[in-house]
Each structure stands twice: as C-alpha cells, then as structure tokens.
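Collaborator request, handled under Task 6.
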Amino acid sequence: MHEKPSASQPSVAAENLVARAFLFTDVENSSRLMERAEAACKEALTYHDALLRETAAHHGGQELAEAGDGFLFAFKEPQLALEAALELQRRIEATRWAPAVGALRVRVALGWGDVTPLPGEEYRGLILNRTARLLNATHGGQIVCGKAFADAIGRSCDLRELGWYHLRDLAEPEQVFQVEKEGMSRQFFPPLKTIPVVPCNLPRNFTKFFGREREIAAVCDLLRGDQSSGQQPRIVTLTGPGGTGKTRLSLEIAEQLRGVYSDAVWFVPLANLAEPALIPLALREELRLPTDATEEPLEQVTKFLAARPGLVLLDNFEQLLPQGADVLVSMLRGMPEVRWLISSRQRLSLPGEVEFPVEALETPQAECAPESLVHFSSVQLFADRAKTARPSFELSPANAPVIAELCRKLDGVPLAMELAASRSDVVAPAEMLKELNERFNLCATNDPAIPPRHRSLRAAIDWSYDFLPAALRDYFENLSVFRGGWSVDAAAAVAHSREVRAHAGETRRALAELRAASLLRAEEMNGAMRFHMLETIRQYAAEKLSNQPRSTRVRLLHVNFFAELAERMESELHGSEADHWMSRIDTDRENVRAALAYAAEPALIARLSTSLTPYWIARALVTEGRRWLAQSHANRESLPPKLRSAVLYCCGTLAVQQADWPAARDSFAAALHEFRLAGDQPNVAALLSNLGVVAANNQEFAQAERYFAESVASYAALHHPTREALALINLGTIHLDRSDTSAAAEAYDRALELSTSTGDQAARALALHGLAQVHFHAGSLPEARARAEESLALNKKLRLHPRLAQNALLLACISSKSGADLHNIARWLGAADWLTREMEALASLRLQAAVAELRTRLRGELGPTILARESTNGRRMAQSWCGDTN
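Structure tokens returned to the collaborator:
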C-alpha cells in the first residue's frame, strides 16, 4: 500500500515499490525533563542518541530522520527491526540515568509495508504515516506494531493483541499488537493514547419480537435528539413492572440506533450487581477495556467515552437505587456525548431524564372477530412460543378466541404469556384458561391491593411453579441463591435439598425440567452449559426460599462452594492450569460477590477474601479487594490466629499494589507480630523481608537495615544457611548504601563463609561481588579487582547474565580508578549493557552513582562515535563469556 502521487509529482511505476520495515522512536516527556534539569537531560539525550544509532546500525538499520529526540530507521527485514527495538529497550532499561533525569522512557513503533524509494535515501508510503500515528499513541517503554508487521514476523516473538484503534487523521482503524519477549522487563501499560474500536456487544436474540412499533419509533426519536420531539434528553428510562419486556424493547431500540451511533452501542446488565459502586466496573468490562491497577474503572470509562457519541443500555437499574443514581450522575459529567437508555421498575429522578412507561402488549377485545385476532401482537407472541413448545401447535378459528381470552387474562404481559405458552406441550389452551381463572380468583381474594398487571404475572409464575413436583419446587427455590448464573457442578453442590452432593445426571434432569417450564434459561459457555434465571423469576424464587427454614443452610452451601473454588484457584496460581482457574472466577465473579455478601460469619468472609487476593491483583480489582479485606480487618479479633495473620498479610499485599506504603507497613508489621506469637518463623522471615522493601521504598534505610538484620537472625535460627547467606547479602547492600563499609564487609564475609560451606556457587559469587565493592569504596583497588574477577569467573560458569553485568559495571569503575585506558573501560560498560538486555542489573546506590559519573566522563572524553564502537566490542566480549555468538 502506498500514497497516490499528487498532481505536482510524476507517477511512480508500481515496480519501483520496495518492502521495508520501519522503526520509529521518541522519548516520553522529554520537554518536561528538559525544563526540570536541562544540563542533565542534554547529557542523557546525547547518550540516548548514540546508543540508539549504535543499536540500529548493528542490526542493519538505515537512519532516515531525526526530529527532536525521535528517530526513524529503515530495515530490509522486519526481523531486524524487531531485534533492534528489543535490544534498544533492554539497553535503555539497563542504563543508570542521572538522578536528576530519572528513568528515560522511550516509546517504539514498528511498521512493515510497500514504499516508494525517493532520491536522498528517503521513502514515501502510507505505512510511514500509519506507524508515525501509532507512535503518538504509545507509552514510554512500550513496543507496538500493526497487523502487517505482526504477520511478517510470525511466531518469532510473543505478541499481545491490544485491539483495534482509530489513528489520528486516518480513515481505517489499525489492529495493534504489543511486543512481549522473554528477557524484557514485564510491564503493564495504560491503554493506548487514542480511541479504541470497541465492537457493539448487543446480545443475540433467538426468539421473534412482536409489536411495539410506535414505542420503538418514539424512543428512537428521543435518543436521536430529534428536534420535532421537542426534547433532547441524555437519559431515557423505560419503566414498568417486571415481565413487561423492558429489556427486550431496549435491545430492539438499540438495534435500530446502531447506524446512528456507528456501532458505538453497548449493553450493560446490572441485575447481578450487589452494590452501586460496581456500575463503572460493569461498564468497563462490557466495553472490554484493559484492566489497569493504577486507574479506577470510573476514570477509565470516562476517558474512553469522554469525546465520542455513543449509546449505553443499563438494564435492571431499580435494585441499585437511590445510590446508583448518584454514581450515574458522576459518569454523566465526564461523558457529554453519551446517551443512556435505562430499564428500571421506577424512574431515576435525574435532571435530563425522560421516563417512558412500557405498557403491556395490546390484547383483543371480547367482541373482536376471530379472523382479526392474528393481528394482535399478544396473540402472535403466545402462538409463536406455543409452537416452540409443541411444533404441531397451530392458531385456528377454534382456539383463537380461547387464546385471546388468555392474553386478556394475562394483561398482555409478555413474560406471563411466555410462561403460559411454554406448557402447551402438556396443557391445551382451554385447560390453561380454566386453571388460570381459578388462580386469578384466589390471588384477587387474598390481596386485592396488588395491581392487576403484577397480579397477572405472579399468577402466571405461580401456575408454572405449582406444576412442579414438590422436590423440584424446592430445587427451583434453592437456585435463587446464585447470581449471574451457575454451572452443573455448582447446582449439584448447592441446590439439592439433601445434605449430600447430587450426581451430575440427577442435576441435569432437574435443570432440564425447569428449562422446559421456562423458569430458567441455558447457554453454552467455553464448552460447558451454564444456566440462569430472568431476574423477575429469580426474585420470585428468592422470596419463596426466604420463607423456608433451609434458606440459611442453602446460602451457607453457596458460600462454601465458592470459597472452595477460590481456594483451588489460589493453590493453582503457579501451576499449569492457573489460567483455567482464574477464568472460572471470572465466570462466577457475581457468585463470588454474592458469597461474600451471604457470609455472615467474619471467618467465612476472611477465608474468601484472603483466597481471592491474587485474583483481585490479577484483574485490577484492588479497590474492591481492599474493601472486603478492610471488613475482615475490622473483625480480626474474632478470627482464628492463622486466618487473622493471613488477613493482615493480604491487606499489606494489596496496599503495596496501590503504593500505599503507610498502610502496607502497618499491615505487614501487625502480621509480623501475629506470626511471631504463633512461632511461625518462616513467615516471620518473609515478612521481615517485605517490611525491608517497604522501608527501602520510603528511603528509610536505617529501618530497612534493621528489618534485614532481623531476617538474617530468623534464617539463622531456622538453620537455613542458603537463605541466611542471601539475607546477609541484602543487609550488606544496605550497609553500603549507608556508607558503612565495615558492617558491609562483615555481612559479606559471613555470607561468603556460609555459601562456601553449602556449595552455593551463585550466593558465593554475590558475596565476592559485595566484598569487591567494599574494597573499591575503601580505595583498596587490587583487592577489589581480585574479588570482582573471582566473582566474574563464577558467574561466567553459571551464565548468570545480570550478575555478570554487575561484575562488568564494578570492573569498569575499578579500572577507571586505577587509571586504565578509557577504551577498555568503555568495553566493560558495553559488556554490561548487552548483558542487561534481559533484565535489570541491580547494584548498590553508591555503585550506581559511580557508574553514572563514569558514563558522563566517557561521553565527554571519547565522544559518541568511539564510545559506540567500544560498546560494540564490549558486547562481543560479553557474548564470548556466555557462549553466545549471535
């Protein structure tokens, strides 16, 4: 694909086209960095430019343009561009930038396509425009590409599809992929900084829709902002009692408006939400926006919908009132172009809302001629559903008057008529009419205050319910504890009245009978059947169950089933089926929330919330998780000690996810106290390590030192020399950061002694490296070099790339202090840069400062060209250490 030549340019023959890969780069927030620290930023960008040119040249890249701090390179093969991009990001990550600059973050976009060569080593083609626009949407540290590039590289790299996105000034959207490869730091980026293409998610309907033409036209006019209607509301609320067909009507209206809103129409079911605060989360999931632990769902949804026309359907809103209306108001403020179609049993009473009452379907009058009955939507609906139950059923002059009377008795309520029609396989219309007459008389006698339409629906459900055998009625009631549907195994564990779990065959037979009675629905999900009830029917069943003595036991069975599911998921996190169990929780998320709500006992809530902590982290539901854990934390004194400790530990873990260091420290400290009381020394040692990390993030090095020292003592008491050696090495690093070389030497010496006795070569190499740093900072350069080279030899044998990088960095600094040739020093740093292409090489703060100072010196004295050449020589040296000649 290429651009058409303009009128002022000669046409270029198609055979002049060539295929090229392009690599675009840009430094994120460079202008802000320049304002903050101009001198340091200039130095950093100079080094960045040299590093980028060297990396691209090494992979055969041709520099086409430099604009500000961004570059454009061309490659003959997409694989070469990919390798250059990966090496570039690894080297950028591994570089210790000046403290005033912080981490330099480079964004990269890759493209592949046909272009026209022009004089002066230039190209023209649409792929250049598309890739440049893609770069503008990318985040620092990220590598993205379009579909053509992804297809060209095939399976040579892990690609994560980010979805389809609109790119600025381009008509066609682009399918975007993120490059992910083993060895790169695993990072989670916010959504791309452009508008995603989110497909319409309206559910497919498998039954015919009858009537409502006037209602559909009227609501469509309102939501189009039709001037003739005199209104331009942002919210239209379809109101009416359960069973009148509000949901189905809203879906038909949405189908009519898909073209108006360019498919930006989304359906959000709310019937299973337990609390109004979850509305933005439900919307985020239906929009299929990526989870982001750093951003609340409301913020994500608002950003996505802020500047685009769209239509959102919120279904079954009534149970979330009145607080749900406040949540909706907060969403309205940031989404001025969005219109809302809401189904609810009552209006929301919000500014800009128009209520549209949904009436029953039109029913025939008694005096209607039989031949005219087929034109009434209520009769058509009944006949269609009856034919589904009994294929031989036909609307005839003989049964038409009876069906018309049935429709009148049921007040034209669609759900009531569907329930009645579902029995057509075993009950003739005349029999239905007789039985329903008796039912209505009973209902009216017992409670004349019930509105007729409510009475007709309840009578229809009562009628279907009473058809069931007693045991199946109990089963139907028990199923009401599920929210968002259920699987066969869940029904077997929870819904049967007896104490033991039912067989799958027995469960399937019961579910099939209820399905035949139209009291529940079934669909296939991920290769298995899943069942659910309409909310109106679920509420009916729940009301019945609430009057039964067994209701508490059934809810407890539900809680225990999903607690076991959560515990199984937690136990499989590091196994081969981790994704499967995470997906199980995804499917049953509303049941898990219901279980938390049903769990009256603090111990049950704590059991669920601690098991779900890894799930909340993985799905960016940290705020929700912290809310439940806070409840367990408030009741922690009533918990068994082991569970109390787990709650505290999980509270700290979730606090770390949101960088809430004070809360993390408090929770970890309390958990440490609990584990100490319990004599749980392994967890004591682990928590001391966590507290050390928190302290280090708060720059509280003295406190971190104390925690690490206690961790050393704990491992010593456990007679765990390998862990003790590693803890001593961490402690030594803290001592170095505090310039206490004597204490650092003592810690490293002891670690060396322990690792030598256990034969742990990796720990021995770390201890030697630590001692080398001690001698370097003390000015004992020969001793420093000897220890560093011994550590290097061990790490060469073990092929531990990050450790070799630490050795190379230290040897570069030792060589500099010893007055060695600058070219040799540059080779050491080049080796370290290549070795850290896979992960960051951690070093003490003092060594980081020394390396940063050395890099600045080399850039000034050698210049970028010589520095790049010697860096390449250093990379080859490191490759020879690792037996890597690629």
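The cover message to the collaborator said: "Residues 470-598 form a domain with the Arc Repressor Mutant, subunit A fold (CATH 1.10.10). The radius of gyration is 34 Å. Please let us know whether this matches your experimental observations."
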